[in-house]
Design a protein that fits this description.
Number of strands: 7
Structural class: alpha+beta
Distance between the termini: 52 Å
Shape: globular
Helix content: 25-40%
Strand content: 15-25%
Largest sheet: 7 strands, antiparallel
Radius of gyration: 22 Å
Length: 218
């Protein structure tokens, strides 16, 4: 009876997450509990409270790259980084970023169609613009909320023409995301560190325009 009542409450959330919470609850309960606990209304409130706590933990960015939290620097949370690859031309950088953001290290990135009708990146080099490539991807966070964040990218030549400057901007799509637990910084740097060794680039330690700064202890 106790298991049935609790598992009934899982109809409104991801079942794998909910079942894990329910198992935790069942293992923590004493052998004899008040009959009031088994009422559906009490059970729903109990499980919902635990699920909310679990959801907060599950959606928080939890990685070494999540230390650069942003709180509302763009109204919503965001991160703007400039990364220089001094010994690689813009076409090669674009190719690596295309591969990096096409699914990505965690499989949660998706390249977007550009206004020019190409997937992921558009080549602006024939048009006399200050950048050679412009692109966009979307990153979806983990269960249970699946928030989407947009990453905008541009690639320009360095002043000496031998390297490339990547300008990357990630912003939380969901309204009300004031603080991001480092998610937007993570969205960018997870891919950068997957396609480049640390010796291949410089920059990216912290955002500019006041965004995604390093923590005070860093």
């Amino acid at each position: 009876l106790r298991s049935a009542s609790l598992f009934t409450s899982c109809s409104f959330v991801d079942h794998r997450v909910c079942r894990g919470v329910v198992q935790t609850i069942l293992h923590s309960l004493p052998p004899t509990i008040p009959s009031s606990f088994l009422s559906l209304s009490f059970t729903m409130k109990y499980v919902a409270g635990l699920l909310l706590a679990l959801a907060a933990a599950a959606t928080a960015c939890d990685d070494a790259l999540c230390q650069n939290e942003d709180c509302g620097s763009c109204g919503n949370s965001c991160c703007k980084l400039m990364i220089t690859v001094p010994a690689e031309d813009t076409a090669s950088v674009m190719s690596k970023l295309y591969d990096g953001f096409n699914g990505g290290p965690d499989g949660h990135y998706a390249l977007q169609m550009t206004a020019e009708g190409t997937l992921g990146f558009a080549d602006l080099s024939p048009y006399g613009k200050p950048i050679d490539y412009i692109g966009q991807a979307v990153h979806t966070t983990l269960a249970p909320n699946y928030y989407n964040d947009t990453i905008n990218l541009s690639i320009a030549k360095t002043e000496d023409g031998k390297g490339s400057v990547i300008e990357a901007f990630s912003i939380s799509q969901i309204a009300g995301a004031y603080c991001d637990a480092g998610q937007n910084y993570f969205n960018i740097m997870q891919v950068i560190t997957s396609v480049y060794d640390s010796s291949d680039y410089y920059g990216g330690d912290a955002g500019f325009d006041g965004s995604c700064q390093q923590p005070a202890s860093a």
